[in-house]
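Project standup — Tuesday

K.O.: blocked on the structure for the chain from last sprint. Re-posting the sequence here as requested.
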Amino acid sequence: MKKILIFIICMFAQHAFCQGKLKKLEEKVSSDGVSYKVSQLSSNPSGRKMYSNTSNKLDNDLAVIPEDVSRNAFSTIDMGKDESKRRDGLIKKSFELKSRPIPDDTVIVNYKMTRQGKILELNFLIKSNSKISVDDIALIEKTLKNDYIIKLDSKQFKGMKYIWYSAPLALSGVKNL
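H.V.: unblocked you, prediction finished:
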C-alpha cells in the first residue's frame, strides 16, 4: 500500500511538473563550470523556478511511452525508504566533503535516465524564495550523475529512449541522517 501511495504522489508531482508553463527565461547562472537556465513557472513571482543544465539535450524531447510499456512500469522504480536513504547518504557525504551546510528546503528532482538507471540529465524545481544556491544544485547534480544509479526493472521499459521520473528530495532529511 505504501508503494502505491508513493507511486501516486510521484506521478502527481510528475504531471504537475510537466504542466507548469514557463513564463520566460529569467537568467543563466553558473557554478563550478556548470551553467543553468533558470525559468519562472507561471506568472506568480513567488511560485517555483526550474533550474536546467544548459547542456541538457532531452529537455525539449518528450519521453515516448510505447503502448506495450504498462503504466504500472513506473511502480518498478524503487524510490522507497531504503533507496531514498542511499541517495540521501551520497548527497550528505558530498556536502560534508565540500564543507558546505545543507539547506532545509525540498526540491523536486526530474530524472531522465537510461533503462539501467544511469542518470542522463536532471532538472530541479525549487521554490522562488528557497535558500538553495546554484552551488548546491551543481553539487547535487554532480553527485547524482556520478555516484547514483536508480534501481529499476529495465525490462519494463523496453522500447523507451529514456525514462523520465520525478521525485522529491527533502534536504532536511539529508541533513538529519
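K.O.: great, moving the ticket to review. The CA atoms of residues 73 and 136 lie 32 Å apart. The first strand starts at residue 22 and ends at 31.
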